[in-house]
Amino acid sequence: MARIVEAIRMAPTSSGLQPFHLFVIRNAELKSKLKAAANAKDLVTDSSHFLVFAAFDTYTEARIDAVVARHAVERPGTEAALDTYYDTLKASYLPRPDDVNFDHAARQTYNALGFALAAAAELEVDSTPMEGVDNAKFDEILGLKDKGLKSVVALALGTRQAESDWLLPLKKVRTPAYDLVTDLN
Amino acid sequence: MARIVEAIRMAPTSSGLQPFHLFVIRNAELKSKLKAAANAKDLVTDSSHFLVFAAFDTYTEARIDAVVARHAVERPGTEAALDTYYDTLKASYLPRPDDVNFDHAARQTYNALGFALAAAAELEVDSTPMEGVDNAKFDEILGLKDKGLKSVVALALGTRQAESDWLLPLKKVRTPAYDLVTDLN
Predict the structure, then answer these.
(1) 13-52 of B, contacting A, C-beta below 8 A
(2) From CA A52, how far away is CA A113, in angstroms rounded?
(3) How far apart (Å, rounded) are the C-alpha atoms in residues A38 and B131?
(4) Could you point out which of A17, A153, B13, B65 has its C-alpha 20 to 30 Å from the C-alpha of A113?
(5) Smallest Cα–Cα separation from A149: which of B31, B89, B117, B180?
(6) How many angstroms from the chain centroid is the CA of residue B128?
(7) Domains of chain A in sequence order
(8) How many CA atoms lie within 13 A of A17 on its CB side?
(9) B116-169 pLDDT, tens per residue?
(10) Do the Cβ atoms of A185 and B18 come within 8 Å?
(11) Among candidates A7, A23, A25, A24, which has minimal Cα distance to A112?
């Protein structure tokens, strides 16, 4: 689990903003509440660790300043370049509607989800990403509004139960490369 | 490159929809045109392979039917369950505004981007994901509108040039785990 969380933490994000927060949930009572808000999907409570990715509800000056401050500490001598870059970013992001900024943050979250899924597969941890939950209820249960966050996607992790997994013997189905990819040489 | 593209193709997506198309661009003239629409960023033309991820502009009955048909072929005996599942999905997705569906498709694209970046890192291929381009111009150059696609994110891939990479010696900077992750045990 520590390695999967670290893959999420180290995933690159646009301008290094890392505009999300990760909740790693093992508490049984909390999982039961979230299950009720997730169409009663058993895998919420069957998982050993239930992860909820919550994105920034918008970008703020304070949130961007925190990124600049961290870079200034870790990369001494780059302060001037950092200020130029992030001042431009602020001028672009801060006037945008919240939903545009949230959408941008949500996309970064899905990139980190990709790293989590790849890490889980390598570590042979079973994973099921989950959309289609009642996000408003998730946000309420986790108290996200006060934190300036909105739930985006969840990820159930655990040990494979091969004998009861009806999907396991089925062939993996993907779009063929000739339909999905165009080479322009 | 084949392995990176395969990582993208095999990335999981919501309900298996794989709602994007990948353009793998080596053509120098095309890269020059895209560079002009990407704030003249040198890495468009410096890359050996410039990838553009384009998401479905919306979900349609035909697009969902193509997924069902592929699953029916590869997973014989599941036709009835497939119809039930994807009929429900159609009832939910098809009446939604195009921008809601595009946003959903774009998120799946970023998940696949995560797989591409993890694969590139493992293969020691240098990678730079790229936002902030003129997406309307990208769409025009690649003729995406007629294909029902919209550009979402790009990825420059190539051989590391360590001697001219000013970022390479700098420390990687990330949000500390105590700020990014909350354990709820």
Answers:
(1) 14, 16, 18, 20-27, 30
(2) 10
(3) 32
(4) B65
(5) B180
(6) 13
(7) 2-59+96-180 (3.40.109.10)
(8) 27
(9) 999 999 999 999 999 999 999 999 999 999 999 999 999 999 999 999 888 889
(10) no
(11) A7
* Structure token pair of residue B13: 């997506």
Q: Taking CB atoms and an 8 Å limit, are A184 and B30 in contact across chains?
A: yes
- The structure tokens listed for B87 are 């009929």
Q: Residue type for A50, please? A: F
For residue B132, the distance in angstroms to the closest alpha carbon of chain A comes to: 10
Instruction: Say yes or no for a CB contact (<8 Å) between A110 and B108.
Output: yes
Whether chain B has a CB inside 8 Å of the CB on A76: the answer is: no
- Average pLDDT for A82-89: 97
pLDDT category, B177, cuts 50, 70, 90? very high
> Which residue from B50, B56, B19 is spatially nearest to B144, judged by alpha carbons?
B56
C-alpha dist (Å) from residue B95 to A81, B27, B91, B146, B165? 47, 39, 7, 21, 48
Of A6, A16, A111, the CB nearest to B173: A16
Measured CA to CA, the distance from residue A112 to residue A106 in angstroms comes to 10
Compute the mean pLDDT over every residue in chain B, rounded to the nearest whole number.
96
State the ipTM, two decimals: 0.97
